[in-house]
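Protein modeling request. Please complete all fields; requests missing the sequence field cannot be processed.
Requester role: graduate student
Desired output: 3D structure, token encoding
Chains: 1
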Amino acid sequence: TSAVSAQLKKLEEQAATPVFRKAGRGLALTEAGETMLGYARRLIELNDEAASAIRDVELEGWVRLGLQEDFGEAVLPEVLGRFARAHPKVRIEARIGRSHELAERVVSGSLDIALAWHDGTILPYSQLVAEVQARWIGPAKPMQAGHNGEALPLVLFEAPCLLRTVATETLDRAGLAWRMAFSSPSLGGIWAAVAAGLGLTTRTDIGLPATVRAIAPGVLGLPLLPMMALHLHQKDAELDPVAARLAEILLEAALDTLPEGARFGEGLPAVA
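Delivered output (272 residues):
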């Protein structure tokens, strides 16, 4: 503890500004500390990228990656950028899809790895990455306090959809009436309909656009939704070096996007 305290003091002296502030019995980052943390993460990533480029410079081949739509904009650009810079001779095929589709493609061998919400399907080679709280999502503008006893309008993916099932079954268990106000095959369509005020949807806090916002349980009489299990599926028990390196970068980027309160890995420790 004394060694860490000395390092923190030295860091603040070099920065010429407080990096931490007291928060109860612990410490929290100041605004300057948050800024420094962002740069520190980028420096570490660059260090890892450089080490990988030197160590694995011989990597060549082709790898096929699948991602849940929620992670398309939040994770995919960083993953592709980091991997391509370190391994320019590897060709990547990426597919954005829904949980059941990605799982089927991994089982059939048309995807090497896929990051997806777990829908209960048992895959031979799959590991729990995290558990993330599902949330009710409404328009960014303020909503009315209630629906005057009317059925709750829902905006959801076309069936089959894991989060569609989660929403309707949760409302059914709570004894709340609902109606399907809008259905879409794309996440972009869901966000547009929610932002327009057509109804509520269910997602996590990952990748929410500015036009929508999460609604706390109890508001509008909404019940608490369950945690969603995020899994990394892989085609084989042992990945080849190309797929293994891409999976490593994918997991690092995905964990960085997890919202506060998420739990990950074995033992599921809370994310700070």
